[in-house]
Every structure is written in structure tokens, then in C-alpha cells.
Amino acid sequence: MSDALVWHRLQFAFTAVFHYLFPQLTIGLALVIVILKGWFLKSGDARYGDAARFWIRVFAINFAVGVVTGIPLEFQFGTNWARFSHDAGGVIGQSLAMEGTFAFFLESTFLGLLVYGEKKLSPRAHFGSAVALLVGSWMSGYFIVVTNAFMQHPSGFAKLPDGSLTLTSFWAFLLNPWGLLQYAHTLSAAVVTGAFVVTAVAAYWTLSGAHRGAAQATLRVGVTLGVIASLMVAFPTGDLQAKLVARHQPVALAAMEGRFESGPRADITLIGQPNVKERRLDNPIRVPGVLSFVAYGQFDAEVRGLGDYAESEWPTNIELLYYTFHVMVGLGTLMILLMGLAAISLYRKRLEGQRALLWILMLAAPFPYIANAAGWITTELGRQPWLVYGLLRTADGASPTVHSGDALFTLIGFSGLYLVLGLMYVFLVGREIVRGPTSSVPPHLPHPPSDGAAPAEVHA
Predict the structure, then answer these.
(1) In this structure, is residue 211 part of a structural domain?
(2) What total of structural domains would you count in the chain?
(3) Is the pTM of this model over 0.90?
(4) Residue 80 lies in a domain
(5) pLDDT level of residue 439 (50, 70, 90 thresholds)
(6) CA atoms of 128 and 113, how far apart (whole Å)
(7) Bridge-partner residues for 264, per DSSP?
């Protein structure tokens, strides 16, 4: 692998991982806001209205930083990956254009109405704006995911004499089965992020005794949404996606599990260290037969190992792929257990008094971010050495005239810029958390109590 290609890949990986810190939260928060607004509209409980107003402000900050960090990714298709853009642009350009034209502008427009229109719009119209924001953010996510799905499992295309790809069936491309399942998995994971973040903030408020009404409302929504979404990430979406990988990218599955030899009743590895040089897994702890069942639905199914494939077809960094996959699965399991425990405590009306569990929920906010980043790294490393699986190799997609010095220089620039943006984001969101929610009820009207709670306070 050339030095320039290494830096091209590292630059795109860095900017993509940093950018995705923000869209995953906007996708999850959009649903949280709709639930809070909907319950406020139905019940008149001011706590849910106050909480919704707070999370709309956080959504706006997150959305703005997400837009700024996403723009460089679009430009890198032309600067760092010109040959890929030439060969595949006739196909993936469709979904990228739709993301910008339809989803992004829909999302931006209704976010403005949500932030500035509450005093101008009726309660139902303001709730409708929240629903439209949800549709826009989720559409945006779909167009991006279906673009990636084409790179994982191409469909609806034809190859031209010059080697470039052209779209032959728009619907086959847009409704790629790989994309539909990958989207369901990605969306569930993003909702997990939103649920963990709102739960962490509510736990902080509860522990500090601040904003009691909004904390109660947010804690209920966050924990309930978190346990449902965490389970959906594992089953059915994660399980079905694993079966797709086994069927269409078996070499990636073998690398994810550090499996070098083929055979039936394949073990799933809980822990171990891949030794690529000697083609074995060191110090493994395995569960017999489970990999065969996860991949093919039968405990005695044969799972092929890396030894069945030429090394030129192996993923280019098996060790990193193996570890990111296991980090994703391990954190996913831990999040299910944590949210399950919180849901039981919430059901028994004991959660607000369990300070140790509240501390854990507050400190667990980074878990879904790490798991999502590990999941996308697993997806992208598993596709290697292909940019478009089976059609275009990564080594053939980079820009031939952009050398390693150019890529490294801009990577350093992005690192500095994103450091500033990250610090600014933490400051702005932290300030909002300390400030807390403001009242969604006019000051001359009383706050209706609910569930025996005292009326919510008006916070400036």
C-alpha cells in the first residue's frame, strides 16, 4: 500500500468518525423530541414541554456542528478519491444529491420553525414541525446509508466500456436489501445514542437536584427508548446483518472472528488476540457452535476461514477489524444490561432514589459513541480491499495527483480545526445543561401537576 493511499484513508477515516459523532445524536434526539412534544400535547404535562424545549436547543447546536464537519467529507470525494468519484459517481451521486436536496433542506427548515416558531405556531403545528424534523433527519440518514450499502453490496448498476458504473435501476439501487437492513441497524444504534445522552443528562439533574420536573420526564423517555433500541440493535437488526455479511462477505466474517481455518460447528470468540503472521488466535475463549448458528442459523453449518481465500482478498488490517468488532459487540451487550436494569428500577419507581445506578447512567453516555464508531470501522475495514465490493479496489480509487504530503498537511489542519469545534461544542452544550430547560407554559398559567409531583418550576 502506497504512503499516499495510507494518508488518504486515514484522513477520510478521521473526518468521517468525527463527523458521525453528531448525526447519530440528531437522529436519536429527533425521536426523543417528537415523543416529548407528543406527550405534552396529549397530557398538558408541562414537564414534557420544558424537556422538549431544552432538547430542541441541544439539537440545534448538534445539527450546526454536524453540518460544518460533514462538508469536508463531500469535498474529499473529489480531492482524495477522484478515480472513485469518476467510476462510481454516476450511481452514488444520485443518493448524495437527494440527501442534500430533500432531506437536508427539510431538516433545516423545520428546525428553524421548532427553535423560533413556538410562540407563532399553534401547539399542533409546532408538534407537526417536530415530526417533519424527524422525517428529514431520518431521510438524510437513509440516503447516506444506501450510498454506503452500494459500496458493500452493489445493485441496480451496469459497467460501461471505460470501467465506470452507471445506474440502470433507480429503485434497485435505492431499495438495496443490504441498505434497508443496514439502515434499520444504523437507525436503532443512533436512537440508542439519543437515549443514553438524554438519560445521562436526566441522571445528572436528578443527582444534583436541579430541574426536577424535566429530569423526571426525560429519564422516563430516555430509559424506555434506550432499552427498546438497545435490544433492536442486537436482534433482529444485528443478527440479520451478520447473516448478510456471512452470505455476501464471508472473508470479512472470518476476519472479524479471527478465524483462519474452515469447518462446521464454528466457535464464536469472546476474547483472544489474532496472530496473522502465524494464522491463529492466541489465548482464545470460545463458545462452541455459536458462530455457525449466528451466521447460517444452524449449529452444524460450515464457516469458511481466511485460509480458504487468497491473501490479496483479505481485509487490509485484520487485527483492528477484529478488535473493533468485539468492542462493538461487548459494549452493545453491556448497554442492553444497563438499560434493562434501569428499566426495571423505573418500572418499580425506584430509579430516582438509586444514586449508584444514576451515576453509572450518567457516566455511560460515551458508550454508544464508542460502539457506533467501532461498528462503522468494522463495516469499512470488512469491505477492504474493495471500495465498491468486487468491482473497484481501494488502491485504484485514490486521486493519482494528490501525494502523501498534501494529504498529511490537510489532515493536520482538520485535526486542529476539529479540536476547536469540539471544544466549542462541549462548551455550548455544557452551558445548556447547566442552564436547563425553560418553561413552555406562559408565566400567568399554572403548571399542571402529574403523578403526584409538585408543579414544575419556571427556570429562566
Answers:
(1) yes
(2) 1
(3) yes
(4) yes
(5) low
(6) 10
(7) 302
